[in-house]
Design a protein that fits this description.
The chain has 189 residues and is of the alpha+beta class. It has a single domain, classed as NADH Oxidase (3-Layer(aba) Sandwich). The chain is 44% helix and 15% strand. The chain has a four-stranded antiparallel β-sheet, sandwiched between helices. The longest helix has 24 residues. The protein is globular, with a radius of gyration of 17 Å. The termini are far apart.
Length: 189
């Protein structure tokens, strides 16, 4: 698949088949992520992969987020909150849940640079997933259960979870969301 096709076909998959994903497939996705740029070649990322029983433990922890979603009904609306709650109950049945962690920096610029680099690494991961026929979804909101997730993944205290990625064989064709078109401004001299 050409890069532009992978970019156009990359959508967040939220429903997966029970078919497992091999360690080799996950390793290939992580290897693609490692090719991402980072400030001063710092490579500030680590991928913690949960499958099998470990995945189930992480899934149970993520299901606790449904308790907090009710706080957002006024902002997001009942339908969106209910859809999110259903998703968090079983994480779309994804057989793999990955935590992407980065070190905690005392300098805010270094922390910002780390998050930017992690975002680039995740995009590489997601694009190769599409190219490989897998589905994936980047989940950037595990904030209510961070401590439990840190323990479940065995992430050291001097790190922070930047995001989760769920991966599997898609059991749905994710719908393309409308993209904003008025976000580019050319500044001429």
């Amino acid at each position: 698949m050409e890069l532009l096709a992978a970019l156009r076909n990359r959508h967040s998959t939220r429903l997966f088949k029970s078919q497992p994903v091999s360690d080799e497939e996950i390793r290939a996705l992580c290897d693609a992520a490692l090719l991402a740029p980072s400030a001063m070649n710092s490579q500030p990322w680590h991928f913690y992969v949960a499958t099998g029983d470990s995945r189930n433990v992480v899934g149970e922890i993520m299901s606790l987020t449904t308790l907090h979603l009710q706080e957002y009904i006024e902002v997001l609306g009942v339908e969106v909150v209910e859809r999110a709650a259903r998703f968090y109950e079983d994480m779309g049945m994804a057989p793999v849940i990955i935590a992407v962690a980065t070190p905690v920096f005392t300098d805010s610029t270094e922390q910002r640079d780390a998050y930017i680099a992690v975002g680039a690494a995740i995009e590489n991961f997601l694009l190769l997933a599409v190219d490989s026929g897998l589905g994936a979804c980047n989940i950037s909101a595990p904030r209510w259960v961070v401590d439990q997730l840190m323990d479940a993944f065995g992430i050291p205290e001097n790190n922070v979870i930047a995001s989760l990625i769920i991966v599997g064989h898609p059991d749905e064709a994710p719908l393309a969301q409308e993209r904003h078109r008025d976000v580019v401004t050319f500044v001429s001299r």
